[in-house]
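[job 4417] fold queue: 2 targets
>>> target A
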Amino acid sequence: MNIERKNKKMAKYCVLEEFKGYRLDKYLTIVTDKTRSFLQNNIINIKVNGNDVKFSYKLSPLDEVEVEFKEIETNSITPKDLALEIVYEDSDLAVINKPKGLVVHPANGHHEDTLVSGLMYQIKDLSSINGVVRPGIVHRLDKDTSGLLVVAKNDKAHLFLANQLKDHTMYREYHAITIGVINEDRGKIIAPIGRDKTNRLKMAVVSDGKEAITHFEVIKRFKKHTYVKCLLETGRTHQIRVHFAYINKPILSDPLYGTKKTYDDLGQYLHAKKISFIHPTTLKRLEFEVDLPEYFKNTLAKLELE
């Protein structure tokens, strides 16, 4: 089932904080899921904030990118009933409780059965700012991170929510289990994050990375593990996972940043438990919270017995 864009030749994108400093061509390969060669051969005109630019242009947050393609750009994502848990929905936005194991949007190696597929099945309208591959997606959770994320149903709401991410007024609380006992009751990890120099699939703490700040508070200590609450001040890719690995307390069963020997094969024990933000229309603060998944609670109970 192919769904044509409402504007058949134009695509518009609003640059989020996480893409600050990206070259325009690299950014477009991500948001369109197209190769550089495809973009070079099929783009007629490209503007940023109304000005003609080259592919080498370095992006800033909230830049407005407008691309004119030779051919009609279509969305080949197939809507699918994934029975997503919609915690809240109105005419501007929806709050979803994403299950572990679900990729948020199509990317290399994951084109079907994504959160976007489920959203397109259950929600009639989604914002178009991030293009046809990421309709409605304001922020992301990793595949094996469960919990809450907010989805925009129109472009006005999308920009309003994106601004809250940018100015750190959106509250995002995560719960995690780390390997190793954290002695401090609470703390703040301040370490810049960028692409790993030796493994392009990973992020890492690097001197030339982007500012990243994670607050944490110990909820409970076990014999060899710690149950913690984490608050994101910034929102870098894999931020919590990278930061706790950096202090030698990696997230339990993290296949990318953890130890070779994992507790199980369920992926990292990281859950987005609470989210709070200002509503784009009512301007009232909304707050949502979901319980820990059963597998998470079961593991906490097992650690209690060690």
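>>> target B
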Amino acid sequence: MSDKVTNLNKDFYAEHMMDSTIYRQDVWPEERLMLQKYLTDTKGSVVEAGAGGGRLTFFIEQLGFENVTGFDIVPEMMEFAQKESDKRSSKAKFKTGDASNLTIFEDETFDYLVYIQQVLCFVPKELFHTSIEETYRVAKKGSTTLFTFLDYDSRIYNPILSRIINFLRKMRGEEASKYHLPWLKLNDTQFNWKLFAKNQPSVYWVRRNAILKELEQVGFSIVEVENGNKIHKDGNKGALYVVCKK
């Protein structure tokens, strides 16, 4: 990541989301269905972005894959995950890496790329497109990539929240951004009382047509697009699953 761009979400995760991330073991039903549907050749190499404590990395390994790598921008999470891997006698490897600058990987390295848990929505907006390009770069020809993004239209109050947040941003002389909204909760349970404060970390809520166009501009072909609650009745309505081929 460029020194000129500060990733507030990196610090936010390290300070407020560690417990809810590294100790999670559950695999959401729609995650399970999509991974089982598209990760079909267990001889292939797999990378998981935003691996956190390794819950999905280990699940992918349980599907029969032996070449699985997880990366995350928060070093403490990767240290935890690698220790957990060693404890399990797992072959999964974990590395500290930045989705916008994947110098830890060569071109066309992976057969399967798992970018779910809305990981790219936490990248600074200046580096979002670069992160998609980096995903494409490390993907092999013919590879499959599973993305999830936060769906702006899945929350009816997003337009209202966006207007309030951006009014305050303009009043303070900050840059406005309609689709970048601050976190509402800490560790998935506590309300973020600093929601309206200055220079809050924010996440990117995409519009469906816009993100599909951006993925296609990079070179991806779209295979499937669906919200989590349409994949499974108990799925996450706010997660927009996009499956791509290179």
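[job 4417] complete. Note on B: The first strand starts at residue 45 and ends at 49.
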